[in-house]
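Q: Could you fold this chain for me?
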Amino acid sequence: MRRNLALGRSLVERYAGIEAASARAAHVEVLDKFATLEQELPGASDPLGLRAKAAAALEEQAEALAREGKYAEAQAPLETVLRTWPQRDVARERTRIYAEARDLTARQEALLEALPNAERKRQPHEGLEMLRGVEPVPHLAAQFADLRKRLEEQLAVLDRQPPKILLRDGYFLDYDRGQVIEVSFRVTDDYLVKSVKLLVRPEGGRWREVPLERSTLGYTAEIRPDVHRNGNLQMYAVATDASGHEGFFGTPDAPKTVQRRKGFERMVN
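A: Sure. Below is the predicted structure, expressed as structure tokens.
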């Protein structure tokens, strides 16, 4: 009992020393003392959360250095945390992030120099595409956010309207039995047409996409008999611009119908 009492008093005194170090904001000392305490009493509790507070303070020091691009210096306080508290996930994750950021800095600085060209050329979609999937390193995050905002605002000014889709002259929504149906669309936009899709189905069937061949005149598709099955065919086309606006020729709920001409109608035509 005397041995246990002596050990208990020693542990209480050690924790009092940790409290005193915490009051002085001696964060490294707090972590060192708690690591020693834990060696004598594995799983020792920390009722005041002093260990976590000290670790968080050192992690904030590291973050402040990282925001200035000083990733090598930012590793030092994190190494102190992990040396005294290997299970600390926050410090381990930031160590990984800062190591990656150090390697990415040169590449992202070059990207920041290139992005304003898209703004000057009034081609904001090019800049936004360059930014796709980029996770800025901490000290460059504000610059990337500013450039992204400027490009998005420029795109909003240039690309206000959805695309327009019209059936080109000389193409009709009817056909004769056994024929390949050919349809062609003229698609325009106030900024940029990004994609055009054509979906078709026999009446009562399932939608399927038909490839479109792009040319200077428009977007053209050929629909084979094994697709239209010599019956009436439903279709709709959708065009998307750089801002995500969509324009339609028909819709899934109100598709256009390509009629198969009957024999008498073919003779009259």
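A (continued): The chain has two domains: 1-158, 164-268.
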